[in-house]
């Protein structure tokens, strides 16, 4: 009798494990990407790319310097570009709707994000003397990839990670996340290629991207001058509300230092 109960428990546990494993595999992009379908288009243009028609918000047109901002999962293109435009008046701001997000076509994936980023850079580069990049959270991997691929003036990383695969493996420790993840967003291979000045902003109480993952990325950026600030009292989602955020961003991007 005891043996049969043990067998039942083991079979049940094994079945539950396989069910959760199947859920993580088949719904991993639902867990990673959180696209909203707000399609309101304000000031900007549509960019034709191999991954679909991508909506690009643009503010402060005609400036010599440009800024491409790669947002986090939940940032709002109908208000955040306006805030950036006020904060950085010397930059033309380009704020993309990721593939499958907002007014953009396509489906979200690592490949789609990277393809979109390179296409946007190539479209705007002839218009500007210098291009800066900002990436926040999920967008830090996109910004880092592009900075390793194309010439940029400066790079800002807000709550960056070493890899999404590493974060997933830490969160779901008993599952072989690295073996089946479709969008690993590995930032470490691109970090040593970065040679431009980098500003890194960390949230003091970040439970989404623990500091260890950010530090591993910083340690890999051996060829650049990195300026790192931990913003007191902030969490992953409210770091841009810190009074230090606009001061640090403006000084790094607008002043000639």
Quick take:
With 257 residues, the chain is of the alpha/beta class.
Structural class: alpha/beta
Number of strands: 8
Q: Biggest sheet: strands side by side, in what order? A: 1-2-4-3-5-6-7-8
Instruction: Report the biggest beta sheet as strand number plus sense, adding barrel if it closes.
Output: 8 strands, mixed
- Name the poorly predicted regions: none
Note the run of SSEs as H and E: HHEEEHEHEHEHHEHEH
Report the C-alpha radius of gyration, rounded.
Answer: 20 Å
Name the CATH homologous superfamily of the largest domain: Alpha/Beta hydrolase fold, catalytic domain
Q: Number of folding domains?
A: 2
Overall mean pLDDT score? 92
Q: Tell me the overall shape.
A: globular
Please describe what this structure looks like.
The chain is an alpha/beta fold and 257 residues long. It has 2 domains: 1-32; 36-254, Alpha/Beta hydrolase fold, catalytic domain (Rossmann fold). It contains 9 helices and 8 strands. Strands 1-2-4-3-5-6-7-8 form an 8-stranded mixed beta sheet, sandwiched between helices. Strand 7 (198-205), helix 8 (211-220) and strand 8 (226-235) form a beta-alpha-beta unit. The radius of gyration is 20 Å and the shape is globular. The termini are far apart. 37% of the residues are buried.
């Amino acid at each position: 009798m005891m043996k049969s109960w043990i067998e039942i428990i083991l079979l049940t546990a094994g079945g539950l494990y396989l069910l959760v494993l199947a859920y993580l595999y088949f719904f991993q992009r639902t867990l990673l990407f959180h696209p909203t379908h707000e399609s309101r288009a304000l000031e900007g243009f549509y960019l034709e790319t191999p991954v679909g028609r991508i909506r690009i918000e643009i503010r402060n047109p005609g400036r010599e310097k440009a800024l491409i901002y790669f947002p986090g999962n939940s940032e709002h293109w109908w208000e955040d570009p306006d805030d950036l435009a006020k904060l950085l008046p010397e930059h033309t701001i380009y704020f993309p709707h990721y593939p499958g997000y907002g007014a953009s076509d396509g489906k979200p994936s690592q490949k789609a994000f990277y393809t979109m980023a390179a296409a946007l850079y190539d479209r705007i580069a002839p218009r500007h003397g210098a291009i800066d990049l900002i990436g926040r959270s999920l967008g830090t991997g996109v910004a880092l990839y592009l900075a390793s691929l194309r010439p940029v003036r400066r790079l800002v990383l807000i709550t960056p990670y070493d890899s999404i695969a590493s974060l997933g493996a830490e969160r779901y420790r008993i599952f072989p996340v690295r073996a089946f993840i479709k969008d690993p967003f590995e930032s470490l291979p691109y970090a040593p290629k970065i040679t431009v000045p980098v500003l890194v902003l960390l949230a003091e109480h970040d439970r989404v991207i623990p500091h260890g993952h950010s530090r591993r990325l910083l340690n890999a950026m051996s060829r650049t001058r990195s300026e790192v600030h931990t913003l007191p009292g902030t969490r992953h989602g409210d770091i841009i509300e810190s009074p230090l955020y606009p001061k640090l961003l403006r000084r790094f991007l607008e002043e000639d230092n």
